[in-house]
Amino acid sequence: MPNGTSDKPRLAYWFILVGVLAVLQYAGRFLAGKPSPQILYEWSTAIGTVVQDAIILALVLVIAKPRYGLLALRRPAAAWQALGYVAVALFSIYVLEGVYDVITNPGNEQGLTPSHWEPNHAAAYIANAIVICTFVPFVEELTYRGLGFSVTRRFGRWQAIFIVGLMFGLAHGLILTLPVIVAFGCALAWIRDRTDSVVPGMILHGTFNLIALIVAVAH
User: Fold this and answer.
1) Measured distance CA(67)–CA(13) in Å, rounded
2) What is the Cα–Cα distance from 185 to 168, expressed in whole angstroms?
3) Which of 8, 11, 26, 90 qualifies as a FRET site for 101, CA 20 to 30 Å off?
4) Exposed, middle or buried, 111 (CB in 10 Å: 0-12/13-18/19+)?
5) Nearest one of 80, 84, 32, 24 to 55, comparing CA atoms
6) What is d(CA 177, CA 21) in angstroms, rounded to the nearest whole number?
7) What angle do CA 112, 118, 119 make, to 5 degrees?
8) DSSP secondary structure, 74-142, as one string
9) Which one-letter DSSP state was computed for residue 165?
10) Per-residue pLDDT tens over the stretch 63-115
11) Nearest 5 degrees, angle CA 58-CA 15-CA 128?
């Protein structure tokens, strides 16, 4: 049973995994501060991100084994409807982000996007963009909206959406922009619930990251 007693250990292991990720992110922020604004112009960032997320993916697969259906890595039944959910969620999160920015003015708290374009480091930036817009969403959606949503669904539909969104937000190690990241995570979980698939969420997640990376260097 997807929400039966057999998934209690998976639930515990998932909470441990995402809890550790959150602690590491906040500890890193507290000890090292904001990342360098040049971080996406460095090849080491892309390599390190791939290695880090590959380890997370391996742990997620171990926790899910042998019930990989919990990851919801499947084609949504109604593709056009799923794209509609993606469009609605993307529009909604931009509206929320815009309103929240006016109220709180958090700035670039995450510190990943640079302040200007540097043509000499274009290749490294593109490599980082590819990783951030493809592999990172793939791993994060399997971790949170895939396995995470499946094992927390026992608490109820909306409870699972909130839990997954909250843990996703905490895993980014942010404070001022935490509500927006949590809302984004909840929107992705909502899409997962409506489509029974993580694929639409991967598309939304990758698109959101791509737009942010383009906007960061387009002005």
Assistant:
1) 15
2) 6
3) 26
4) middle
5) 24
6) 18
7) 130
8) S--SSHHHHHHHHHHHHHHHHHHHHHHHHHH---S-S--S-SS--GGGHHHHHHHHHIIIIIHHHHHII
9) H
10) 999 999 999 999 998 999 999 999 999 999 999 999 988 888 766 666 667 76
11) 45
What's the pTM value of the predicted model, to 2 decimals?
0.92
CA distances from 57 to 3, 136, 156, 185, 187 (A): 22, 10, 25, 18, 22
Q: What is the pLDDT of residues 155-214, one digit of tens each?
A: 999 999 999 999 999 999 988 899 999 999 999 999 999 999 999 999 999 999 999 999
Only one residue has tokens 């608490």, namely 155
Q: Which two tokens stand for residue 214?
A: 């383009």
- What distance, in Å, lies between the first and last C-alpha atoms of the chain? 52
Q: How many CB atoms lie within 10 A of CB 95?
A: 10
Instruction: Report d(CA 138, CA 146) in Å as an integer.
Output: 10
Residue type, 217: V
In the predicted structure, residue 217 carries a pLDDT above the cut 90? no
